[in-house]
Design goal:
Blueprint: H1 5-14, E1 20-21, H2 28-36, H3 48-58, H4 63-70, H5 74-81, H6 89-99, H7 103-106, E2 128-132, E3 135-139, E4 149-156, E5 173-180, E6 182-187, E7 190-196, E8 200-204, E9 209-213, E10 219-226
Parallel strand pairs: 1-2
Antiparallel strand pairs: 2-3, 3-4, 4-10, 5-8, 5-10, 6-7, 6-9
Length: 228
C-alpha cells in the first residue's frame, strides 16, 4: 500500500512496538522517518546595517576608520549601520571594497560555527523499534533531528535470501558491523560474504543488498546509513 510522506510520519510515531511492517517498507521507511523528523532549514534574512557593523567590528575599526577605508562620509556610514539610509549601489561597492569583500558578501549571513556540540545518548534497549518479518530494527539517537546519518541496531531474523521481496535498495552509503552471531551479506554485484562478530562492511546502498543470519540464533548488527 502506498502512503504519502505525511501519513508515513504519523504511522511511524503511533505504530505499536512489535508491529510488522511490509518488507517493501524496509529500510526506506527508516530513512523516511529520520528525514521527516527534521525541520527544513530556511535562510535568515540579512539586516544590512547590522551586517556592516559586524564586519567593521570584526576588523576592530572605528566608524571613522571604516568610512575612510570605504571613501564614505562618517555620517553616511553611521546612517547605513543604523538603518536610517538605504545605500546606492555605488555606495555598496565602496563599502565592499573598503571591507575587502564582494558586494554579495554584504548580504550573505556569516557562517555558523561548525562545532555545535550536539549529542544524543540512547540507553541500551531504549531505541525506537520497527519490526519486519526479516529484521527487527532499533533506531538510535532517534530524538536528534537533522541528522546526517541514521544509526540503528538490527536483529536479523531472515535465514534465506528467498524470505526477501527482492533486493533492498535506497539512496546513500551504508556501514554494517556484526555485533553477535554470523551473517551472510548478499550484494547485487559481489559474491555473498560470510561475516562474524567484529567484521564490518561499507558499501553503496543503491546497490541491491540483503542480510541473513546463518547462526542458530538471530544475529545482531549495527547499521549506519547516510541521509544526504
Amino acid at each position: 500500500m502506498s502512503l504519502n510522506r505525511q501519513v508515513q510520519a504519523h504511522v511511524a510515531r503511533t505504530v505499536p512496538r512489535g508491529y510488522s511492517w511490509g518488507m517493501s517498507d524496509d529500510p526506506k521507511t527508516l530513512i523516511r522517518i529520520a528525514r521527516d523528523n527534521g525541520a527544513e532549514d530556511h535562510p535568515e534574512p540579512v539586516n544590512l546595517g547590522e551586517r556592516v557593523r559586524d564586519l567593521r567590528k570584526a576588523r576592530s575599526w572605528t566608524l571613522e576608520q571604516a568610512a575612510q577605508q570605504a571613501g564614505l562620509a562618517r555620517s553616511t556610514l553611521s546612517k547605513i549601520e543604523n538603518g536610517q539610509m538605504s545605500p546606492t549601489y555605488d555606495a555598496l561597492k565602496k563599502l565592499a571594497t573598503g571591507l575587502q569583500i564582494s558586494v554579495p558578501q554584504l548580504f550573505t549571513p556569516p557562517q555558523r560555527e561548525k562545532v555545535n556540540g550536539r549529542m544524543a545518548m540512547t540507553a541500551s534497549g531504549q531505541g525506537q523499534r520497527h519490526a519486519t518479518t526479516t529484521y527487527e530494527h532499533e533506531l538510535l539517537a532517534e530524538n536528534l533531528t537533522k541528522k546526517q546519518m541514521l544509526p540503528y541496531r538490527a536483529r536479523v531474523r531472515a535465514r534465506s535470501f528467498e524470505e526477501f521481496d527482492g533486493w533492498v535498495r535506497h539512496d546513500g552509503e551504508e556501514f554494517l558491523y556484526v555485533l553477535t552471531g554470523v551473517i551472510r551479506l548478499y550484494t547485487e554485484f559481489y559474491e555473498p560474504i560470510e561475516m562474524r562478530r567484529g567484521d564490518s562492511a561499507y558499501y553503496d546502498s543503491t546497490m541491491g543488498h540483503n542480510v541473513v543470519s546463518v547462526s542458530d540464533e538471530d544475529a545482531n548488527i549495527l547499521w549506519v546509513t547516510s541521509l544526504s
